């Protein structure tokens, strides 16, 4: 069995997100010792309460809406049901798949939550891809859509550009509905695959791959960069300090890593060079901290779309700006969560009922100040979110219309 945590961290699947393990695993029993009242035992000396022990309970009393089912059928455009069995230094090296959840357990949650379909982005390539398509898509038509991935394990082979372009065609024949690019490209893949200089996102060796996707009408789900706090020092000014402190390998500050700006600029050059290829930039273009920037790029590149996976924490802390963003780009925003069956270590993306209820609450209600993840301590930063209560028309598009169009399916 692959170690899921290791895999998710290794390939950077965890979209700049993670459980502040030190916080969430604090034993409850510490608060009550030998019958002494909690207040005596835990009473902090002034300034001496460790951040990891801090679990403030909100005293705010406001309306709480339960949203057990989405108002309209949902396509979750960003999930991970299958993953590579082998990865090294952030690069997947095997087409073989490990499965994180069975079709039956996925369908049970989907039916309860009014989810029509799940897009499994990490379907891999070659035999692994075929197997994943058979196990889910073909067995349950209309409920699962599997994407393929580049075969970086062949990167050093002569003629890789053509080989990778042809591989997309083959993947399409094998049932892949799109191409997934992990943040491997830009942050992990190197000239000698796991060593040497980093390969740039707009490296021309990938041009045939982008073009093949355009010709075959396969959308490219592309993860570029990460939360901008991951590119700044892990110090007392970092708003995601706890997360980074628990996962130092998620920091891209220093070393030979490009900056967030450089990564996004390289990504944009790909959009400009391949206007017939449709790109869905995952995690809200990975710049949901700066929706003005995302908007600017959406205006500039008509082939750019965004998903909201693992970013309601960001969107929900700026509800007024987000609502305007959804109004303006209602035809280009796709519902997505980054859900991973049994991904309990990363509560902001664990595939369960509670996660979907939070997303629905964010999109459908104007509830105030609630948790963006099913976790004791907010895992991506210590704040809470506000609902944006989208209109029915926008909800329909975000829940399924935009994804159905990208996938070329009807719902
Ligand atoms: Zn993901």
Description:
The chain is of the alpha/beta class and 411 residues long. The radius of gyration is 21 Å and the shape is globular. Residues 9-36 have low confidence and may be disordered. Helix 6 (160-173) packs parallel to helix 8 (207-215). The protein has helices at 4-10, 21-24, 38-42, 103-112, 126-138, 160-173, 184-187, 207-215, 241-246, 260-273, 282-285, 291-300, 312-315, 319-328, 353-364, 392-407; strands spanning 74-79, 82-84, 87-88, 91-92, 97-99, 115-120, 144-146, 179-181, 220-222, 279-281, 304-307, 333-334. The longest helix has 16 residues, at 392-407. The strands form 4 sheets. Strands 8-9-10-11-12 form a 5-stranded parallel sheet. A 3-stranded parallel sheet has the order 1-6-7. Residues 13, 15, 78, 80, 338 line the site of zinc ion.
Outline the secondary-structure elements.
Elements: H1 4-10, H2 21-24, H3 38-42, E1 74-79, E2 82-84, E3 87-88, E4 91-92, E5 97-99, H4 103-112, E6 115-120, H5 126-138, E7 144-146, H6 160-173, E8 179-181, H7 184-187, H8 207-215, E9 220-222, H9 241-246, H10 260-273, E10 279-281, H11 282-285, H12 291-300, E11 304-307, H13 312-315, H14 319-328, E12 333-334, H15 353-364, H16 392-407
Parallel strand pairs: 1-6, 6-7, 8-9, 9-10, 10-11, 11-12
Antiparallel strand pairs: 2-5, 3-4
Helix pairs in contact: 6-8
The structure holds zinc ion (ZN).
């Amino acid at each position: 069995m692959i170690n899921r945590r290791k895999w998710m961290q290794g390939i950077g699947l965890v979209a700049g997100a993670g459980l502040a393990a030190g916080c969430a695993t604090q034993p409850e029993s510490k608060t009550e010792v030998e019958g002494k009242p909690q207040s005596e035992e835990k009473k902090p000396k002034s300034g001496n309460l460790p951040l990891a022990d801090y679990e403030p309970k909100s005293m705010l009393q406001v309306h709480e809406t339960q949203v057990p089912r989405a108002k309209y059928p949902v396509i979750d455009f960003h999930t991970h049901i299958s993953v590579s069995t082998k990865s090294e230094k952030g690069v997947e090296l095997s087409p073989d798949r490990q499965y994180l959840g069975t079709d039956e357990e996925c369908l049970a949650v989907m039916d309860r939550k009014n989810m029509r379909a799940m897009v499994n982005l990490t379907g891999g390539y070659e035999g692994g891809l075929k197997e994943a398509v058979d196990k889910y898509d073909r067995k349950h038509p209309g409920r699962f859509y599997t994407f393929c991935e580049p075969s970086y394990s062949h990167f050093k082979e002569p003629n890789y550009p053509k080989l990778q372009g042809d591989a997309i065609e083959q993947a399409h024949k094998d049932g892949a509905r799109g191409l997934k690019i992990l943040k491997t490209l830009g942050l992990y893949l190197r000239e000698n695959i796991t060593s040497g200089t980093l390969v740039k996102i707009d490296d021309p060796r990938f041009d045939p791959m982008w073009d093949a996707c355009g010709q075959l009408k396969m959308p490219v789900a592309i993860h570029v960069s990460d939360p901008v706090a991951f590119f700044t020092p892990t110090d007392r000014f970092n708003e995601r300090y706890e997360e980074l402190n628990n996962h130092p390998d998620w920091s891209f500050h220093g070393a030979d890593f490009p900056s967030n700006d450089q990564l996004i600029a390289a990504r944009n050059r790909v959009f400009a060079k391949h206007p017939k290829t449709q790109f869905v930039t995952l995690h809200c273009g990975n710049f949901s901290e700066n929706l003005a920037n995302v908007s600017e790029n959406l205006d500039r590149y008509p082939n750019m779309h965004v998903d909201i996976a693992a970013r309601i924490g960001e969107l929900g802390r700026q509800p007024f700006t987000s609502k305007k963003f959804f109004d303006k780009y209602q035809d280009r925003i796709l519902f997505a969560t980054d859900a991973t069956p049994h991904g309990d270590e990363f509560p902001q993306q664990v595939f369960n009922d509670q996660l979907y209820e939070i997303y629905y609450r964010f999109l459908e209600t104007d509830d105030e100040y609630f948790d963006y993840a099913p976790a004791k301590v907010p895992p991506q930063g210590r704040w809470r979110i506000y609902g944006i209560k989208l209109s029915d028309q926008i909800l329909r598009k975000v829940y399924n219309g935009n994804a159905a169009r990208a996938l070329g399916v009807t719902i």
